[in-house]
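Spend some time on this chain, tokens included, and walk me through the fold:

. . .
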Amino acid sequence: MILAQKIRLYPNDEQAQKLWQSVGTARFVYNWTLARQEENYQNGGTFISDNELRKELTQLKKTDLVWLSEVSNNVAKQAVKDACLAYKRMFNGLAQKPRFKSRKRSKPSFYNDNEKLKVKFQSVLIEKVGWIKIKEQIPIEGKYTNPRISHDGKYWYLCVGVEQEFEQPILSNESLGVDVGIKHLAVCSDGTVFKNINKSQTVRKLEKRLRRLQKQVSRKYENNKKGSQFVKTKNILKLEQQMKLLHRRLKHIRMNHLHQVTNQMVKTKPSQVVMETLNIQGMMKNKHLAKAIQKQGLYELKRQLMYKCQKYGIAFIAADMWFPSSKKCSHCGAVKTRLSLSERTFDCEACHFTIDRDLNAAINLSNYQFTSSLKR
């Protein structure tokens, strides 16, 4: 099984400058590819393949874009391929229309050729950058998959796929149902309840501090406004850097919590895990719940649970979106016609069985009958 391994890089000042140059090249070529596709479409043309665009880019390097030769050739080639792949995903209905990458908002990252990625003890070779120090060792021998170098606002990281082997544990014959929500992150059919990390005191303090910094930046922009233009002073830059680090810390806290939750689920060694399928895009349209749903990271929870189940040989089943897990009684099987979101206790009208709403849904998911027509 191929798993991603993310390690921190320790470049010197000269190497860091070259890394930023590669990031800028990848962003420029990606935007150039989107612009070429848009221009060709407006002129009545069809989709341009990535091979044709890479040939065109090679010719431009000799005339107008000579500076692209200062970084690795694979950085520009992969940026073209990524942009074309984004359009193909849009055509297949898997994603929305690709957007241009902003220098301020887009994630700084670029691709490194897997064949030219060399690893030795506590150092790794990045093409046209040099040997960069690392502390966490990755396998020296073996095939690497899709190496990407990125910057998270504070440190540089190398993310690379490495093939690994795992021993398959002895699984029980139990089925674990997982009901996700906002009040609690997840409720399992065995009675385990995983808290919402966004309601913890640590996260609330950080969010309160973030709101104060945002208000300070807003006031400074208004005070330094010249006519219709906003002036960015050094104090504003300092506050924005503090905000960026707070966003980074909140992201890591939430991601760490999701890893802990999914690890605890698969360590119970069930034969299968059944998780409900939610219409996240539809739920995000509710202005009262959109922010809380976004913070939960439900898609990331599902993604982690899927690959960890595959890692240990556990069957993962995504229940049908229209399966009435919350409205169905886990005791007699009767289905309620209406159940409002404010009703946190399930009271069955047929057998008068009373149970917590989320636990009832998790038990129904654990008894979910998987058929070929409901595959996800």
